Amino acid sequence: MSSVRLEAQHCRACRRALAPEAAFCPACGQIVNRDADRRRVAATTLIGFFTLALLTVAGWSMVRPVEVTPSYGPGANGPSAETIDLGAVDPRAIADNLFNHVVDAAAAGDSLQMATFLELAVQAYTEVEPLDADARFHLSTLFRIGGAPEDALRTAEAILGDAPDHLLGLGAAAAAARDLGRDDEATRYYRLLVTTYDAQVDQPRPEYVGHATFLTRSRTDALAYLERR
How far apart are CA 11 and CA 56, in angstroms? Predict the structure, then answer.
């Protein structure tokens, strides 16, 4: 067997066996091919351009609460480019705006835009410290969109570790459990969501207001799911 063929089948760094279409090693993150290397460089460049756009575009507004629905655009009454304080734009604002782009692209069926911003959004949230419930919900949603239900469930359960009745955490955890085919877990989360919904939905949590549509849909999904069980 030639060395070229061996290198194509195993990671150069850790020798992990790789799928033929792999771009990165799942064990150590090593770039497998030049196409992946170019995508990483492009992603780094794009996040720089995106950050610059946030700071300079006229009419830019602070990040809005996000529903996982189409329609995205800066507010009409945001500060002008001349009044933006560069030091005021923190990693969370960048992460949330990237999240907006991902969910809008996913809702519009634009797989290219979705894939472009997905990795950037996940990376951006790694710069946010600490992650509150809203940010964790965003991250769990990104993992689900990206086809990583295990990570989506783990992130949703982190919300519940701090607040066991949190509706965003319950809805996200149930959805991720369903993706994984873990019906018992999904049932448990959905039952808790239904029984605590009325008391929880009126709690003064800003993330409930920002994701009201998701909460309503989660309750509808929970009732339908439990009826079939």
Answer: 41
Residue type, 18: L
Find out whether 35 and 28 touch, Cβ atoms under 8 Å: no
Sign (positive or negative) of CA dihedral 144, 131, 42, 12: negative
What gap in Å lies between CA 72 and CA 105, rounded to an integer? 10
134 in a structural domain? no
Report the domain count for the chain: 3
The predicted structure's pLDDT at residue 91: 85
User: What confidence score (pLDDT) does residue 178 get?
Assistant: 96
Q: Which two tokens stand for residue 70?
A: 């189409």
Range of the domain at 66: 34-129
- Examine the domain organization and report whether 124 and 166 are in the same domain: no
CA pair distance 52, 64, nearest whole angstrom = 18
Which DSSP state fits 76?
T
Work out the number of other CB atoms within 10 angstroms of the CB of residue 95: 25
Does 153 share its domain with 72?
A: no
pLDDT for residue 116 is more than 60: yes
